[in-house]
Amino acid sequence: MRPRDGGNQSAQPPPPLPRSLPSSEDAFVAFIVPDQVGHLDGYRSIREVVGNKTKLSEVRYWGEKVFKGVTTPALTFVADRKWSGGTEIVELNGSAYRGVLKPGDPWFLSARRELLDSLRPDSFSVRPLLADCGIRTTAAKQQVVRAADARPTDLVALEGKRIGRYWCSPPQIAVRLDHGKVVRSADDRYDAAEYLVRQTAAYPIVAPHRHVRHFRNSVHSLMKPVPPMDLRYVVGLLNSRLMRFAYVAETREAGHARAQTCITCSRCWVMRSRISSSFILAADSSENPWARVQSLETSAMSVLVSHSSHSRPLKTCSADSADAS
Question: Which residues does 219 contact at the CB level (< 8 Å), separation at least 6?
Answer without folding.
Answer: 134, 158, 159, 160, 163, 196, 197, 198, 199
